[in-house]
Design brief:
Beta-Lactamase; 437 residues; alpha+beta; single chain
């Protein structure tokens, strides 16, 4: 490209020099050198204006620039613009094909995809969005999504623009379908709403829950019978079997506890809402401390730290069950002589009840999976301590029913802290303070 421009400039300069020489010769012959040079300059200027205007007309028209036949700078500039024009067209064509491919791929997705602007107006949606969300093309383009998908829970979630997905929403187009929705912001002003049909997964999950609940319920009666007969056998009658009977009683009680925990989990999973009661934290913490002392049998130092006077809105029974699981875990895994602290505190974001121990701690790679059913940090840890591996799963489900979550921090050789974190909407002023105000 530079060599072509260089040749064009040289050709043009030589041509101008030749014209100037002819003008000088003519002026000398006619004794009018200034007039001859003025004519050449005016002619060159007029030719430049003409070519410039001609090039401008070509550029303003929706058509290709024609190829120039000459070798001057104006011809080379026209050919250069023509090549750039064709290159831009090819780039545009490739981009259009790429965008069309992306659009076709998004349109073929089984998940509903809706492109939204900052005001949550619909810019584009695929075929699945029509099937799952009930959107209609093209009349819904440009409409506000919350005006087209009318569900208070959905509108509230979309207004918050949270990264957390919205689970188990009935599909507006079909009440029998259940949706999982996620809002993905990909620029400052645009976002993608992705809705997935999870009806089949939820049906399978319900089958699993029913199976676990039914099996656990059916196991309860034979286990009760076995446990009862074992208790009826006196070790003195058959002293040689005393160690066997002792182990049978331990395992029978452990199996019974596993069944009870599975039934508790099944009940929590099937429970849609909870009683909304005032849960007084001062007496609850004191009751938990007494439970910890009884379980510890004097082997640990158990203290409470009440840093806030707020009460909680929720189910006293379920919260007590969840907190008791954390307390029993702390006693079970903390060596004799260790310290266990129960703390209730709040800040601008909410409140938390924490159970801190001075046990062996937990490696970081295990922390994300602690609330999974039957997950064990080590294969023998729960069996040696009598745990069922379901306590933290129960805690997680109870907290989810209270719109709360569990946070775990731990350091090997130092200890662990299990915190139940509640939002400020769950906090209540203590009764005495509320009465005085």
């Amino acid at each position: 490209m530079p060599s072509r421009l260089g040749r064009a400039w040289r050709f043009t300069l030589w041509r101008l020099a030749a014209l100037a020489a002819v003008a000088l010769a003519a002026g000398w012959w006619l004794d009018a050198i200034p007039q001859s040079l003025l004519v050449v300059v005016a002619g060159g200027f007029a030719f430049g204006v003409f070519r410039f205007a001609r090039l401008g007309r070509f550029l303003t028209r929706p058509q290709w620039l024609p190829p120039a036949e000459g070798n001057g700078i104006w011809d080379e500039m026209q050919n250069l613009l023509r090549r750039r024009q064709r290159a831009a067209f090819e780039d545009k064509r490739r981009l259009v094909q790429l965008l069309r491919s992306f659009r076709d791929a998004a349109a073929a997705l089984p998940d509903a995809v809706v492109a939204l602007d900052r005001e949550q107006r619909i810019q584009w949606f695929n075929t699945a969005a029509s099937q799952l969300l009930g959107l209609k093309y093209p009349q819904d383009i440009g409409g506000h999504l919350t005006n087209l998908v009318r569900a208070p829970r959905f509108a509230e979630w979309l207004h918050r623009e949270t990264a957390e997905p919205l689970n188990d929403l009935a599909a507006p187009a079909d009440e029998n379908l259940r949706l999982n929705l996620r809002l993905i912001r990909y620029t400052g002003d645009q976002a993608l709403l992705v809705a997935r049909d999870v009806s089949q997964l939820m049906r399978l999950e319900q089958v699993r829950r029913d199976f676990v609940a039914n099996v656990s319920h059916e196991l309860r009666t034979p286990l009760t019978v076995v446990h009862g007969y074992l208790d009826m056998i006196e070790p003195e009658q058959i002293p040689e079997y005393e160690p066997i009977l002792h182990e049978l009683r331990i395992q029978s009680r452990r199996m019974t506890q596993i069944v009870e925990d599975l039934l508790t989990l099944s009940r929590l999973e099937a429970q849609g809402d909870l009683p909304q009661e005032r849960v007084s934290l001062r007496p609850l913490l004191e009751a938990l401390r007494r439970e910890a002392v009884a379980l510890s049998q004097g082997e640990h130092i158990v203290t409470t730290d009440l840093r806030d006077r707020h009460d909680l809105l929720g189910s006293t029974k379920e919260l007590h069950s969840a907190f008791s699981n954390l307390v029993s875990n702390a006693v079970r895994y903390t060596p004799a002589g260790g310290r266990i602290t129960l703390r209730w505190e709040s800040d601008a974001n909410g409140a938390r009840l924490s159970v801190t121990d001075t046990g062996p701690g937990i490696s970081p790679q295990h922390l994300p999976r602690l609330t999974e059913r039957f997950y064990r940090v080590s294969t023998s840890r729960s069996r040696d301590t009598g745990g069922t591996g379901l306590g933290l799963s129960i805690v997680k489900h109870v907290l989810q029913l209270h719109q709360a979550h569990l946070e775990v921090t731990s350091e090997l050789g130092v200890g662990s802290t299990f915190s139940c974190v509640f939002g400020r909407e769950r906090l209540l002023e203590p009764l005495l303070l509320a009465e005085t105000t």
